């Protein structure tokens, strides 16, 4: 994925309010409650990290703050993981962000951390959350105050990796009487450099490829949010967000060897641009003085990605069968989503809480893929790889939660979500399918506060994972003419069953034991399928070659096809031990965690559902067997040291390590990262310098071997060491209350674009 470090302005500063544990927190009253130490504690179904006024929360951005939060980590600077394994879904003030994943990371990296009151980590979300598979939720709670006025933020950042990548942004927020709002704009450029080493084959054949990818990106994004308080009980709001990404002249240049002989060079030149617009209308009414309320949303999402590539293969040896070839491919994708939801939160006088809701999503994706191959010095449409794929999906969801305190020490939450999915996929003039299924997804959480020092909780949840929309588009992306990725419109939704036992001691030490089961599993990454195609031999112009007797000369070509498909089931048992604590009067703050895991993957891929050979072709696919059992571990060590008594100089020293881990596609090599940062706070200005992955050790190496001896190895070195220098300036009334966050009705489809 392509990411930029840019600005966002959905967050605002305010006064600090947080419930504090009497055994782990000292409070000093000045004019209001001022938290002197951050607190990490269990509350119901979530773990709460109170970062207001802590040293870590000053002078950085929200993404870096999240990396310092217990149970959260990031090794690539592009994604966030919970407990080192679960993907994180970002909520802001209990409302899911309506940005696509790349724009969301840009927003987090450009949002001042001083705006954050607390961070809630929900490792197993309840039925009210629109999440899939084993995704966890990070809920960012912003500071609030009702002061009128305005404020804003300006930020400039420069990162030096293989290339230099600058970014900048600005935001403006206001509140006046019943009106409040915010707007933001961010822009930047990012050129990603990756170096590839690919090898595959079997005991009798070896293919090797070496090359690089330069991917330049320019990003523009922004939006606004307007909220009007009709009266003390009713509010109405409207929000709009957009993002534009331009990536022209992205070059993939690979040189290929076969059995030690230099054969050809493949160059792929790609132009792509992505446009994303989201609109949301929100209405909220409070129904009583206890906090009950009715919320409704109507949303629209428009996503458009245009991608066109020109792939050339140049022969580098004297073999007459090795010919120049070229193909042109256009892969556009348009997504329209219409959504609505109604939620009713009912609180009773006895302390119980009911949540009832209904949601509806209609999605239409249009993928008109066109491929042309060079033939007789002209480009001719390839009917096998040209297709127009239309996918329509309707999801109706009904959910109910009940939460209450059972005794002074025991509380519980039980719920269920019932989803009805109706979908059709049509490859026009070729084939199609209809897929209808219903899912009942139960949820249970029990929390037992043994005493002020000990807390124990158990959670069970059931979820499904639907394929991402781009995974369904039956198109190919070529590395070489015989090495490519293949999307799969026939992939099925996977079923997840998640259980977790969590123990916390003195709001500082925790242990988390989890067990996850997956049925109809699909690989977390693409599976490498090797095979051969036997077809009539053709000359450089694509004409069939005959022998002296008039018979077609047949030739056999090996291929490597990366595909995402269902294969079987997997199981994962994981234990995480962690600590979050400050030492020497807050001079040294530590956040350490160690994760121990055992995983099993079982299944096989015996055929390629996307394969459609012509009558003259014979395709033989090597069975891909998955039978994996693996122990693994990872560790995260984050340290923040205050260097001055004025609390204006801070040093950060972080280390991450992940052992070898076996996955469906092979064994991922060990990775580690050593990061160091220095920041200086000067009034409303903050200057921060960081070096991420100082020793260039966080890159991917995957080795995969099958029982029959076929193998596939990949090394992707993306120059992970980054030097970053950022300057942030905050102006205006920093105690301004932000505009009301609104939940978008089409949140459920955001992560699938």
TrEMBL record:
Residues 1-18 form the signal peptide. Residues 286-729 form the Outer membrane protein beta-barrel domain. SUPFAM superfamilies: Porins. It comes from the Bacteria. It is found in: Cell outer membrane. Keywords: Cell outer membrane, Membrane, Receptor, Signal. Pfam families: OMP_b-brl_3. Transmembrane segments: none annotated. PANTHER family: PLUG DOMAIN-CONTAINING PROTEIN, TONB-DEPENDENT RECEPTOR-LIKE BETA-BARREL DOMAIN-CONTAINING PROTEIN. This is TonB-dependent receptor. It comes from Chryseobacterium rhizosphaerae.
